[in-house]
Amino acid sequence: MCDIYQTTDVFGVRNKLIKSYIEREAVDLKFKEAIQDGNEVIVYGSSKQGKTSLILKHLTEDQYIKVECSPATQPVDIYKSILRQMGITFLDSTSTESGYEHGGKLNAGFNIKVPFFGGTSGGGELSDKTQTKSVDTTRYVEYNLSLAQDVSELIKTHDTMKYIVIENFHYLELSVQETLAYDLRVFQDHHLIFIVLGIWREANRLIQFNGDLLDRITEVPVEPWEPDDFMRVISKGEELLNVDFSEIRTQLIEDSFNSIGVIQEICKTACIHAGVIKTHIGAPKIITQDNLNYALKKKANDYGVRHIRNFEAFVDITRRTSNQSGKPSLAFPYYFIKLLLTQDFNNVEKGLTRATLLEEIRRIHHRPDDVRSGDLGSFLHNITEHQIKKKIQPPFVDYDRGGKILKIIDSSLYFFLKHCDREEILDDIPNPVD
Questions:
Q1: Residue 151: which residues within 8 A CB-CB, separation 6 or more?
Q2: Distance CA 371, CA 167 (A)
Q3: SS3 letters across 71-138
Q4: Are 96 and 106 in contact (CB under 8 A)?
Q5: In sequence order, which residues have a C-beta less than 8 Å from that of residue 264 and are 6 or more positions away?
Q6: Alpha carbon distances (Å) from 185 to 192, 206, 220
Q7: What 8-state DSSP symbol labels residue 281?
Q8: How far is residue 271's CA from residue 19's CA, in Å, rounded to a whole number?
Q9: Which of 129-143, 260-274, 306-320, 387-401 is modeled with the greatest confidence?
Q10: Is cis: bond before 224, omega within 30 of 0?
Q11: Which residues contact 134 (CB under 8 A, 6 or more apart)?
């Protein structure tokens, strides 16, 4: 009797490894070699493209320590989490705290005290008998968690051989990312292997912060996915669930726009619509065009709710001025979304250069003569922070400063833009100029 699998365990996007996972030589082999060569490892790519799955496939839970980052995370928070997960007991030190003028702590807890246990012997005479006793004493060794050198020494004293996974690195403020880029250089010297996961699409992101990382990190991009990779994923799922996608396989791949996450979700939804909630018994169940059409429509609606909300938050209509003089703002967020919803889809898919953005925004702007390259550059450089402040998670767009190109980094957004009524969505987004 064949094994029975749940459809949601075979297809879909989950926080655990799914059964239809396939290994790709350009990614999986490179990752396995990277974690053995002594360099720090950077795994990057668009959202839902397999970064976390790569970790789950090749590392067991007892092989790594994982720290989830948020916009408020500071380096000291990461290092404290690592120590706690290693079982290292420490006390926060207040000896080096400084304060704000009206109270409150600044840089509190950067210094910690780690207990070091030892013993001392004492002797004495009582009733012509010599008595010896042992007294346990505790000494504290102070470590500064703002210094990667101290953190490295502390971790090494506990002989940990675990990898340290930093997930959602892209949520961190740029200043924090820059600090960690410098710290990684120290950790590499101490043979501590960090695996950094981030949503961006350009190479050498951390090297831009610290050029000394060149040749000290190994980058593993999880994109691109090739058509043959998608075929293998679908075929593996077909075998496990005893279904047949042959009638719709080509369209399914084409309509997913190179996103493995979208393909996984469409496969899962189409199977469930066909009545396959677990491995089908009997002749293979045919997944039909009707099943695919239902899945495409449902996922477009599912993704649409989130993306439309993100667009509305991104536009930020409540901030109408750019300075204390009350001069109306240039409303770059609104015009960017308008451009995204009116540009030719192929241009959006390839990425929009800074020069193209400047030209196109001037073309549609209500004050074209006031749109300066420097102002646009400031907006682009802070576009990730803008999304994080608006609680857009994960960010849907990222600006590559080196290549001066804006790219979509939410892999489901291409799918949504292709299947939605872009004009209708734009009409529903309030224009802050009106």
A1: 79, 82, 143, 145, 183, 187
A2: 37
A3: CCCCHHHHHHHHHHHCCCCCEECCCCCEECCCCCEECCCCEEEEEEEEEEEEEEEECCEEEEEEEEEE
A4: no
A5: 11, 12, 13, 18, 20, 233
A6: 10, 11, 18
A7: P
A8: 15
A9: 260-274
A10: yes
A11: 119, 120, 121, 122
pLDDT exceeds cutoff 70 at 67 = yes
How distant is the alpha carbon of residue 366 from its chain centre?
A: 36
Distance from CA of residue 84 to its chain's centroid? 23
Pairwise CA distance, residues 432 & 353, whole Å: 25
Bridge-based pairing state of the strands 285-286 and 243-244: parallel
For the CA atoms of 338, 339, 340, 346, what is the dihedral angle to 10 degrees? 150
The DSSP output letter for 176 is H
Q: Which residues of 54-72 are buried (b: 16+ CB within 10 A; e: fewer)?
A: bbbeebeeeebbbbebeee
Model confidence over 15-24: pLDDT tens digits?
899 999 999 9
* Range 22-30 contact pairs with CB under 8 angstroms and sequence separation of 24 or more: 22/229, 22/232, 22/233, 22/236, 23/57, 24/225, 24/229, 27/54, 27/220, 27/221, 27/222, 28/54, 28/57, 28/58, 30/218, 30/220
pLDDT interval class at 90 (50, 70, 90): confident
Entry pTM? 0.85
Instruction: Tell me, rounded to whole angstroms, the distance of Cα 26 from its chain centroid.
Output: 20
CB atoms within 10 A of CB 263: 25
Residue in this structure with the two tokens 């990425």, named with its chain if needed: 351
**pLDDT score, position 27:** 96
What DSSP designation does 242 have? T
Q: Which two tokens stand for residue 341?
A: 């919803």
